[in-house]
Amino acid sequence: QVQLVESGGGLAQPGGSLRLSCAASGFTFSSYAMNWARQVAGKGLEWVSGIYSDGSDTYYADSVKGRFTISRDNAKNSVFLQMNSLKPEDTALYYCAKDRSNGRYYYGMDYWGKGTLVTVSS
To answer: What one-character DSSP code corresponds to residue 31?
Structure first.
């Protein structure tokens, strides 16, 4: 019943930008923190960013801090990841993931989208 559908991936040049979107349904979106995570081919998952249920606080992995911005629009049940100053090492499959709670405490993520591929290459 829970659905998370990512979009916005594609090819970008180093130093370029992409904006990822995640459309959520099947749950009370505004009650849950949301996250972005990524997986580089052949490697494990890396948590990228998270946002509190009402958008009042955001969190970033050191690897993307200062370059990526997470945001959400609860009226549209959507979460976004604005990626600027892209680097080749940002190339990965990016997943939108629902948190188990509102984000005050970490209880893990329970639902994941299928992912959208981001390729950064010259």
So the answer is: G
pLDDT digits (tens, 9 = 90+) for 23-46: 999 999 999 999 999 999 989 999
Token pair in block for residue 48: 């990228």
Q: Does 106 score more than 90 pLDDT?
A: no
Q: Could you tell me which residues are beta bridge partners of residue 80? A: 21, 71
Q: Phi and psi of 82, rounded to 5°?
A: -85, 120
Determine how many CB atoms are found less than 10 A away from the CB of residue 55: 17
Q: What is the token pair recorded at 119?
A: 């390729």
Cα pseudo-dihedral 106, 107, 110, 114, rounded to 10:
20
Calculate ∠ Cα 27-7-4, nearest 5°: 20
